[in-house]
């Protein structure tokens, strides 16, 4: 038995130990035994992988075409007019739509074997963000809220989770407390709205108003000592603290040099990526930036080229900026989408939904770059090797952050949940 375990992969050995612990000790004990050292007194080499500190999560809403970006099928009619270009890693190619990211291929791990069982937009987004299928009876937490729940906020003056552009389905706090909810920034160039005392109030008048609010709330809070009531009160206090903090400057992208702003791109997504870097510098834990417009049922090649120009410039600038500032090793940059697009080009020069094979990218945070992981079949319709499910992908992100992916959290109704459901981290990406 001992020799067999030595020959097994790290993942197989861990799963064997997990199943044995579950059988002998029960789920809660197994969770504690197999948690990472940052959350338990375990020194097991199973969890010797690196840990990221923060996440910048770039979400391509609508279903980014893998065939026209990261998973080329050159020489096949399904590829269409898009050509490949060389990268800074010998023997690798990306789409001609991504010339700047091709210069950063040495940092990137491109997963071309992503698989989802959700082929509709809202359901796909929910699944990608939460690892669970969408149900009417419960809301599941997103990764940012899980990070805050387990590892907390590193800057008490700023929210731990910020979404720029939109809040996607499945990316909220779900059944967790309100204090783990993301803050939405609609326009990254507008700063944090409503964060100053109204001009009709003096400082003294504002303080008097808050004192009166606290007195009025006191009786209600004492009568209803519930988690939701205290969470809203804490959120209000956090907002007041932020209003008086110098950390508000983090939201002012206009204070950056014009050359830096231009490098990211003169558009909401580019400036959102710049804002994300500024927030991560101030110890915001999880920042999501959304770029929509990838639902290319018509004019796929033209629309993908336009969106790719925005993505390529902004993400390349972000990676270069993080590397120059020495922040890339502690910041995991994620690029993903809800599903890919079909190899078949329809009558409208478009591609339809394809959840059975698509691409995602991980950079920094201990991820070893310069590689493609897994592959789709010869036309990009299905996974051919090393299938990565959505929960597997999210478990890999959680693993990089040092989160206890096998711990059980119970919803208010007593149902057990895990950070990434039954997902298994891709340990190979860390070596």
From TrEMBL:
Matches recorded under Gene3D superfamilies: Alkaline Phosphatase, subunit A
Stored InterPro entries: Alkaline_phosphatase_core_sf, DUF1501
Name under which the protein is recorded: DUF1501 domain-containing protein
Organism of this sequence: Catenovulum maritimum
């Amino acid at each position: 038995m001992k020799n067999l375990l030595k020959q097994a992969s790290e993942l197989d050995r861990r799963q064997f130990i997990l199943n044995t612990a579950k059988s002998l000790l029960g789920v809660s004990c197994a969770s504690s035994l197999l948690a990472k050292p940052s959350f338990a007194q375990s020194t097991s080499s199973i969890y010797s992988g690196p840990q990221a500190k923060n996440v910048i999560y770039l979400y391509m809403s609508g279903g980014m075409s893998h065939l026209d970006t990261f998973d080329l099928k050159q020489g096949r009619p399904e590829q269409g007019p898009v050509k490949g270009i060389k990268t800074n890693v010998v023997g690798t190619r990306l789409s001609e739509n991504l010339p700047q990211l091709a210069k950063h291929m040495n940092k990137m791990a491109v997963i071309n074997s992503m698989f989802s069982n959700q082929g509709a937009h809202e359901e796909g987004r929910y699944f990608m963000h939460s690892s669970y299928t969408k149900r009417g009876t419960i809301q599941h937490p997103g990764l940012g809220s899980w990070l805050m729940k387990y590892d907390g906020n590193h800057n008490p003056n700023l929210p731990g989770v910020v979404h720029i552009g939109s809040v996607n389905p499945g990316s909220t706090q779900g059944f967790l407390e309100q204090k783990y909810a993301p803050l939405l920034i609609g326009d990254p160039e507008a700063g944090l709205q409503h964060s100053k005392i109204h001009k009709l109030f003096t400082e003294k008048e504002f303080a008097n108003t808050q004192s009166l609010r606290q007195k009025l709330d006191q009786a209600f809070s004492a009568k209803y000592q519930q988690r939701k009531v205290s969470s809203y009160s804490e959120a209000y206090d956090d907002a007041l603290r932020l209003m008086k903090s110098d950390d508000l400057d983090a939201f002012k992208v206009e204070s950056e040099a014009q050359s830096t702003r231009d490098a990211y791109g003169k558009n909401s997504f580019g400036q959102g990526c710049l804002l994300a870097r500024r927030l991560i510098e101030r110890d915001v834990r999880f920042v999501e930036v959304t770029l929509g417009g990838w639902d290319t049922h018509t004019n796929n090649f033209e629309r993908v080229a336009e969106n790719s120009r925005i993505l390529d410039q902004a993400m390349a600038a972000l990676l270069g900026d993080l590397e120059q500032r020495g922040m890339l090793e502690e910041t995991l940059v994620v690029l993903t989408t809800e599903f890919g697009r079909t190899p078949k080009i329809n009558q409208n020069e478009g591609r339809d939904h394809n959840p059975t094979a698509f691409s995602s990218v991980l950079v920094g945070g201990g991820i070893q770059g310069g590689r493609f992981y897994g592959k789709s079949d010869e036309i990009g319709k299905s996974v051919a090797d090393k299938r990565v499910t959505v929960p597997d992908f999210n478990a890999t992100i959680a693993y990089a952050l040092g989160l206890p992916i096998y711990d059980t959290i119970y919803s208010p109704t007593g149902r057990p949940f895990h950070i990434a459901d039954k997902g298994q981290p891709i340990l190979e990406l860390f070596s």
